Amino acid sequence: MDAPGKPFLMRVEDVFRRNQGRIVMLTGRIERGRVRKGDEVEIVGFGGDAIVTVGDIEACRRYVDEASTGMNVGLLIRGAAAGAVERGQALAAPGSISEHTRFAADISLLSEEHGAAEVRTGERLHCYIGTAVVTGDVTLSRESDTLHPLHRGDVTITLDRPVALEHGQSFTFRHLGRAAGSGDVTLLLD
């Protein structure tokens, strides 16, 4: 059973369009909360801020009236706003999560053998946040001008596109075309 106060959140993994984009099936795993047929959900990330209604819920190849944390589902959404949904966005209880382009994080680099290279202020990282893949500029804290493999550090990341972010959220990143490390969001800056 879901803990009280945990609003619905699902990251969009795939989008299937029918009827010239007016009917859309959004698939993903429910990270928290529950959703019911007829609930209003907000599209968050990549500049999307529409509120849409869940028409149907598909789980395990059958339609259900309700789905909850941990379930892989498809949510059928109707309407003009549904045509603008894409992989990497989130569906959430209205007002429960917001999109951001700038955040502070504590990151850890892998070893050189596992692909990490030195990271310096101004370099670009490919961040994997939920199901979103977004490039961003990194700024190291004032104590350091270079972050070496197998080290951790406090950084600020400015993304090219806004994504649904929360304090404490984990993410991974690639640098110079290779897996480089992971991090946790410590502060939302915009």
From TrEMBL:
Keyword Chloroplast annotated: no
A family per Pfam: GTP_EFTU_D3
InterPro entries (alphabetical): EF-Tu_GTPase (IPR050055), EFTu-like_2 (IPR004161), Transl_B-barrel_sf (IPR009000), Transl_elong_EF1A/Init_IF2_C (IPR009001), Transl_elong_EFTu/EF1A_C (IPR004160)
Residues annotated as domain Translation elongation factor EFTu/EF1A C-terminal: 96-186
Protein's recorded name: Elongation factor Tu
Domain Translation elongation factor EFTu-like residues, every copy: 26-91
Assigned keywords, A-Z: Cytoplasm, Elongation factor, GTP-binding, Nucleotide-binding, Protein biosynthesis
GO molecular function (one): GTP binding
Coiled coil feature spans: none
